[in-house]
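Hi team,

As requested, here is the filled-out complex form for the 6-O-phosphono-alpha-D-glucopyranose run. I kept the field names the same as last time so the parser does not choke. Let me know if anything looks off before we queue the next batch.

— J.
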Amino acid sequence: MGKLIVVSNRVAVPKARGAAGAQGGLAGALNSALRDYKGIWFGWSGAESDDENDEISTQSHEGVTTATIDLSHRDIDEYYNGYANATLWPLFHFRLDLTEYERETGKGYERVNERFADSVTPLIEEDDLVWVHDYHLIPLGERLRSRGLKNRIGFFLHIPWPPTRLFVSLPYHERLVRTMLHYDLVGFQTVEWRESFLHYCSEELGAEVNEETGSVTLDGRTTIAKAYPIGIDWDHFQAEGETGEARQAGQRLLSSTRRRTAMIGVDRLDYSKGLPERLDGIGRFFDQFPERVRDLVFIQIAPPSREDVESYKQIRAELEQKAGQINGARSEVDMVPIRYVNRGYSHAELFGFFRAAKIGLVTPLRDGMNLVAKEYVAAQDPLDPGVLILSQFAGAALQMPESLIVNPHSPDDMAYAIRTALDMPLAERQRRYEATIDTVRDDNVQHWTKDFMADLTSIGTSG
Ligand code: G6P
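And here is what came back:
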């Protein structure tokens, strides 16, 4: 068998893992996948070049070879900030109200996919497996096929797939989805997103769809659609948890909270994460149970993300206002209820924080999977575990039904869940932890990679 070629928009080598919280699940997952398979990880360097520069720069680090290109200011503006993050991201997270559509950014998206195809094609040999990731690169498979590539090519979508009725609001939606049918295998985080995709293919494209096997046949080509719930790098995360850095971080948090229970949230500063709604839930908790204000301290770690996109500027301003409002109303001279932190921390530090915080709050309005939920549970002390409050709209809720499941749109629901978590007896915390930990440990990122790769290797290709 040949080597593995992974292609994603962002390439993050291990040494750049410092701001783990800012990276999202994809970068960490691919690092682990590539450590286990010999291969090349191709994508954008994250840097801006002055002009069209086709130079590929390669690097090897801890067994992972990366090959990256720079993008021009215009490419970043149209492809990354524009079509990927102002059109596809909000639409795929069911936020039609935030979805912008501009013909020019659509063209930029196609142009950059074309550039990716030009640059990566010479790196691909006959028997190589190609695995493309996420919404930035949906058309890449078709672009590779148009260059004559007959290799097996798979695609994994790390974010949700919206219901057909929402999806059809995207101009040229057919064109985009038709390009996906040039992959041999298309992976989704959950069965729900896979079903929506199959529904679209049958209803809108008139493709022949087999719900059971997930096969989609159109114009003589067949693509298999399947769910592969992503997991965390359990071994690596546990090893991080053993470090002095993790212990110190936990100590630091504990010594600063004293007799109050620490509740923690860690999210990229993104509207899909439901952060204002979360603060509303916490505000409601303080309103309903004012006698308990001193029992709790909420720590929200929220590294800024995609700062050139307007909707991200707005969410940041909204959060600053809400956090300020609640703190203004509820603080005392010796006590502040919300610590709102706009920076990232290393994985080791996050492990320490998660273990020290007796409540984890993961309440996205919509999320493909959400690995913070899994990392929170993975970091708990089995003898005295904390409680995870989890949104019913995170892909992770399907795998972790024994968490305290909430509707993030309901401040009352969240307020009551916080009180339940604060008062939960040890035996029940342990029962919920025991019911969840196996899937967090066993359905890990290595398992995810192995499953996807096994299927990609064994299915036929329509080349
Ligand atoms: C999500 C996406 C990833 C993306 C990450 C961070 O997890 O699925 O593709 O890399 O967010 O976002 P950024 O725009 O900084 O790459």
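Two things worth flagging: The two ends are 17 Å apart (CA to CA). The first strand starts at residue 4 and ends at 10.

Thanks,
J.
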